[in-house]
Design goal:
3 helices, 4-stranded mixed sheet, 6 strands, alpha+beta
Length: 132
């Protein structure tokens, strides 16, 4: 994910959708932060229609991808693809940056470095006005 383009925005309102199983139609998307060892809880939350902000391991610190140096902290922003696309559109993230679904029905964005720090601060309530 290219974090340089993420911008500050309030929690998004969901747009109408054709999928009747998505619970967030015309309601704010619910975000919740999960620590590293809470991956099962994060996935369950996302599968239920939430946006899970999951703290990932910092294995890739210092490596480069598409000309960008990845810095810790690393996050996965997990959700059902339609909701994740909507969340990303409100935070300056492109749908093509979403990592595909694999064994589960949820997909994710990779967020790292300063953008991840600001997102953690916002969802934890320590700096809500400064984060994407």
């Amino acid at each position: 994910m290219r974090t340089a383009r993420a911008s500050s925005a309030p929690t998004a309102q969901s747009a109408p959708t054709q999928d009747p199983n998505l619970k967030h139609v015309n309601q704010p998307l619910e975000e919740r932060y999960f620590e590293r060892r809470q991956i099962k809880e994060a996935i369950a939350f996302a599968e239920a229609g939430g946006i899970a902000i999951h703290r990932n391991f910092d294995y890739y610190h210092g490596s480069k991808i598409r000309g960008m140096t990845r810095e810790k902290p690393f996050l996965h922003v997990i959700g059902l693809r339609p909701l994740l696309e909507e969340w990303g559109s409100h935070h300056g993230l492109r749908p093509e940056w979403i990592q595909p679904e694999k064994r589960r029905k949820v997909a994710h964005y990779d967020v790292f470095g300063p953008s991840a720090e600001l997102l953690i601060a916002r969802v934890k309530g320590t700096n809500p006005d400064q984060a994407p």
